[in-house]
Amino acid sequence: MEDEQQAELIEECNVLRRELNDLMTNDFDRVLTEITDILKTLIRSLKRPDESTDITSSDSTAKPIVLSLTHPQNSEILKCTVTLLGSDITTADVVYKAGTKVQPPMNNAFRTTIATQQMKYWSLQQLHECTQHLERALRCVVLTDFDRNIEQLYKAIQYLDLIIDCINNARDNILLPKKKRIDDLRRNKNTTIFQPPIPENMAFSFYVQGSKLSFAVYHTSVQGKSSGYFKHFIEANVPTLADLVNQLSYILLQLQQLRDKLRIFDEYQNGADWNTNKYLLYRCSLSTDRCETISAALKQFYLKVHPDLFSQYPKEKDVNEKSLQLVSAYLSGLQRKEYMASISVKFFTKSLSNLPSPAPVSFNSHRVTLNSNDLLTSVNSLLTALNLPIVERPKEQKNVGRHEIQFKIIEIEKFYDFTKIPKISIKTWLANNIEAARVIAKRHQELLNEINDKVNSITERFKLKSIEYSDDWSVPQFSTCLRTLLMYADKWHEKLLTLQGKRLIFGNKSCLLQDGSLELSANDPPIYWDNVICCELLDSNKYMEKIASYENNLSQYFRGITIRQDPDSESLCRAHTYLYHLIQLSSHLNLNRHHEAHKKISWTNFYLFINPYSSEPSLTNSGFFQINAFDATMDILEFMIDNRKQAEKTRNLYEKDVVKERNLLEIIQKQFNLTDILINRRLKKRDINQCCQRLLDERQHFLNILTKCRLKIDKNYNLAQNGTISIPWDWSFASNETL
Fold this sequence. Notes:
4-stranded mixed sheet; globular
């Protein structure tokens, strides 16, 4: 009997290896060849004929497009006709008359042009940056010159992640224009090409958003002692931009499908238990005519109806958004074996048109009724309505035993923030997942021991303070990063010695951090690590000296203040980004040395947190003042003066909560006999303490259940790939588990 099972397992493994080999030797090159042709076509379409296109080894295909920009409500205040060639506006004719919309009134129309004979163009930065990202993606494709075999699986996934990142950045540049200050618009070198020149009280801005080219005029309006800005904009649909967005979306879909297929095999290979891992075979989706997993199939459904695809069409976007919420709630209930009342939802999708551009966008309406209490049937109803490949029900296998095939459903929710979150009691969650957590932890224990050995080896070799990685990563992913680092350790030995006493972090970007630590992205191939280690890391001392100097300038301005990273902040920013904000803040504050915040007030025992990602001056949960260079200087100074007492009070309460939290966590780990206890640092200390106290008060329910587990206090229930089991800070014993 055992020989038969062994033979069956060997045969399944051989089948899996043959399918993976076919995927690497055929599908991988087919997809890369297809996207290479598309990328070259897109790059040529974004270049002017007189620009270099060496990377595509072909001439530019861009043709002049004459556009007449209009206001959605046919306003006559602003008129503009432009010629778009590639990524530049080569000619423009602007007529602007605000009349009494501004003060003083504008009685005469202002006319200005960009003349063809000037050979000067308005450079659309978004499209130029998009081109750069596409060229980088094309270079990454060229770098995929490794052998097409299963031994190179990890390298293939790495390069696909890198190419996807480039395409995402290119698409974001088109869909999400960056906001700019009025002063920055006035200083824009593009504005100098207009004749006659633009008046000082006006600012012009051309920008791209999706398939539209927009033009905005900002006009300073002064009335008495107050002033403000009058803004007027016009826009036009650009067929080539619509085609560009569609092509990028298609490339992303092809790459993501290929990457997901490869990752299934990678997870299979990295597993420690062959007998368990053979059930991953049922999750494979090698092509659209084979068995699709529920999660993979739902991703295709999601890419058809995502509300962001309908940003220019508010009615269709709203319908899809509400329908997705209902579908998510319905499928979540079925997954928990609950009875769900039937629902009827409606979705819009964009129809493919064979008409030449510019053609109006048309929509297809899909009405779906979900009335089955079978999860697979409900999912297939959605897929059938949109003419997508359905999920086939897996055939029953002999000797499956207790290894029941479980579909991992609703991975779509990782990409979409649904408003209806299911409520579940902590008893139900622990009862259904605690054994799985122990099995996962046990399965990875050998790999975790190997990781600890590698971490200790690297830490001792380079005298590092610590090696860190994101807690939601899979254990094999972290192990692979360490293995890659060890492969190149001899080459980078001298450079990495400069990290002595600092941290090495595996995160989502490759760069030098503001405290001199090094972050390496798991999605970047070693060639990008090499660039950061051999270039940025060597300049770390210069960065740290400049950062210390400008931090000292700020400390002198705010007499006695301490500049420090907020203790609840999870990640550090890039060193050059942090230095830029310090330089700008120092420059702005030096112009306001007459202010009482500098001359009269002492800031001893106060803390300042420079956060490039904050939106306005504010207080953190730990009582730190939080600012950055984009905040108005007077707003910063007035906020800090007005909130001195509040900052001091918040800081004192926070310090007490920190001490209380430390004591409670130690007690819980000891009394519950936990392997480890973790927290989500974004949570407020009082919420963590409240959760800990409730756990202790209800200890009789958890003493035996949580023994030898890794517990994390978080915002939601979760089971991590390293066996850590998360509970929300506001968990409950509620019996009414509803949506």
